[in-house]
Sequence to fold (473 residues):
Amino acid sequence: MSSTPSDESDIKKAAGNLGASDPVTPKLRSNSNRSTSSFDSPRSPLFSKEDQIEIQQNRRKLEMEIITLDHKLKSLQTEFQNLNSKLVSHGELTQLKAQTRLKIFDDQNTQANQLIDDYIETIQSVRAAQAAIIVLEQKIQEESERRKIIIDESNSVLNALDFSDMKFTSPKLTDVDDKLDKSVKIDMDRLRIDIQNTQNSISSLENSHQFLPIQTSVANEMKKSFESDISLRSIGTAAIRSEIQANQKLIATNDSEIRKFEMEINEMKANMDRIKKNIQTENISHETQLNIATTSFKQQMAQLDTDLEFLKTKLSDTALIYDKIAEETKMMETKFQNFSSEENPEEDMDETESEYPIDYSTNYNSLQSSSQPDDNTELILTARKKELENEVSELSSKFKEMKKDALKRENFLKQTILKLNNRFKENRDILIHSGFNFAISPSSPSGSGITKSLDNLIIRIDNSLSELNLSSK
Fold:
């Protein structure tokens, strides 16, 4: 077999490529002037024909191997070029690190700013709710103080009665315990710790000088972990947003409850105003009734005083008349006793007849005439005595009737006072159930005058009754 020039050129090209690519491979010795057909010439004394055939076969095998090696070389060169194109340099790696770090920092910064803004909004809303609660508590305290003043003014009429002090404790409203702020703080602390860890890892990567494939794989894994962490944090931010929305709903419900409390307070104010008006009207009516009763009682007591004075004067006059009559009767009795006990002895009469003659007719007539007016005066005095006794009995019966009327009036006034007391207790219970302090101050100046007047009135009644009892005795 003879070799063609194209085969020789291919062999030369393969040898040239091998020489260019691999300096270790030895070059093939070739003689361009020498023809390959000399192996076929019968003049060649070196090789026989069988040897030449074997050499040609070896040659073809070698050519095939050279071609395969050439293809492998081309493929390896292309792969090497691809690897060179895909190979990341140190500058590109540092740039990639900086870009990833900047992206992570931007994402974390935006998330942190968003969380801080949300946290500030929640704190502002909670502070606003707390300020509203403080304002409402202050208004409630002012209203309670105003109502205390009104109740103290209304108690000025009722301080005459003895009641136990009732103290009112305003309901304390509980503070808003928002546990979600702590969770937000915990999430922020966790994010700061993650940022610090990433910064430490980035600084450790920047300090490393040799970049091995293991380090690149570690960097890729860290990048993946950071991306997964970022996705998880985005899920956490969504959960925090949902919690913030829940907090906003809770604040809205608290606002609605506060509005309900305000409506209840307004209703209680209206009820208290109505109760206060009723108490004022009842107090005015009770005061008028009490004034009317006191004036009528004073008039009756004055009338009783005048009647008693009249009876006393009349009794003193009748007593004087009775004493005079008794003295006159005693004098008449002594006169009659002296007249009956006088003796008229005959010796004296005989001695005196001669000197002083006596006219017995005239003496008897004179005695008879003197005894007749004494009998008449006695009858007149006894009749006068009976009249005076009848008059005294009538006056005593009138006094007893007046005393009964006074006792009835006293019982009636006691019953009215008990009714007023029961009415006061009912009004006080209504005020206590409505939740307000209803304490009676015993040292109030407005109630002192009423208590003094009532005490004076009671003392006067007791004195008059004691005088009546003494006069009846």
